[in-house]
Structures are given as structure tokens and as C-alpha cells.
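Researcher: I'm preparing a figure for a lab meeting and need a structural model of a single chain. I don't have an experimental structure, so a prediction will have to do for now. The sequence is pasted below. Please return the structure as C-alpha cells so I can convert it later.
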Amino acid sequence: YTASHYYSIVNDKKRMVEEAERALHADPLSLMKNNQLGEVLLYALRPDEAEKQLLKTIEMNPAWRTPLGKLAFVYQAKGDYEKSLEYWEQIRRAVNQPGKGITGYIIVLGLLGRKEGAQPYLEQLHRRVEEDAEVSLDGDLAHCYAALGDFDKAFYHLNACYEKRVGNLMFAIRYPLNQLFNKDERYWQLLERMGLKQYYELPGQASPA
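Model: Understood. Here is the structure written out cell by cell.
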């Protein structure tokens, strides 16, 4: 299980799935390990298999929101933004607290070109940061601004994640959220600072920098 997380960080698509499958075989009723397999199948660019695995995980515990969010990312990866939005709407309503459970919702609204509709929720994220000094939402804000097309603000917050060592920075380097950033040379500069650039460049293909 831990090895699968490691191989997902270094973008070894074969090993991340193999290790998740091995962990699940040893503990087939584990919700965490079922979810992990679905998650790494998505990172490994196998969205159809990820969808099947995550739906199985949701059947095991429909109240657990984590696989719902991962499934929303699957539909985002497949270009079905409306279906992705349906899952984020479900999560947003279930959480039902201002500034919480809305990041994916904002991202997909941005991808759908519904920027005006996303603004009230973006303001909720900023308000939550102002009201709770213990909360770091730089990762959330980076993804939201990237989806909304404001890359200066996106990379301001993404670099803040790096400086603060905020863990959710890792979502920005994984598929499909990395697609929001990876056409900008600042993304590759950040990966280089993290020591991960070599793992994400395609063979024979240099970064935009």
C-alpha cells in the first residue's frame, strides 16, 4: 500500500498499480485499499478501469466521500465534465458548509466555462482562509485559478504550497489535475525544485522550458 503511494509520486504507472493490487489482494475488504487501486488506475491513465474500481468501492460504503471525488476526477479525465459536476454537486451538498467540499466543483465549473457561477464558491475559499489561520488552502486555490484560466494566481498559490510543504501539492502533479498546469513552464520549474521533473517528462520530449 505504501509502495503504491511511492510509485505514484515518481510516476511509475506499472508499479503503482501492481503494488496497489498486491495490497488489495492481502486485504480485499479494505475500503482504503480498494480506493487506492481506483486512484492509481486513474494516475496510470486507465480511466475505464479506475471508474469500475471506484464504483465498486462506493458500493462497499456509499457514505464515504473520498471515492466519489476520485470518480469525479475520472469523468473529468474522460472529458465528461457534466457528469463530473454531478458528483461534485453531490459532495458539496453532503458537506453543506461554506468553503468546504467545493474545490472540485469550482474546477469543473471553470472547465465548463462557467466562471461567473464559480466566483461565489471561490470567494468562500478565500473567506475560509481569512477566518481560520490554521487552514492552508493554497493547493485548492491553485487548482481553482488554473481551471479558471488565471495562471499567475494559480502558480502563486502552487509555489506557496511548495514553500509551506503543503501535502496536497502532490495532486497538481498527478493526472488529470496536472493537465491544468503542465503546458506552463512554471510547472516544470516547480517539478525541478521538487526533484521530480525527470519522472514526468515523456521520453524524447522536453518540458516547455
